[in-house]
Amino acid sequence: MKITGIVDRFEGELVVVELEDGSTTDYPKKMFPKSVSPGDAVYMTNGKFEIDKDKTKVLKKEIDDLMDELFEK
Length: 73
Hints:
single chain; alpha+beta; SH3 type barrels; 38% strand; elongated
């Protein structure tokens, strides 16, 4: 089973990941790159999480576009 999701937040030494089905799961910070941030799309490979930079970029653009629409005058 391939684990993919979006980093929701940090809680101490845990990273809370929102999975594709909408549920959240906690994983130890040591399983992630040091550069991981809330909002990053991630996937697990070989027992460690990696940042999906392309998907993260797409998600951030979608959010920016929605914010622009919301605050458009």
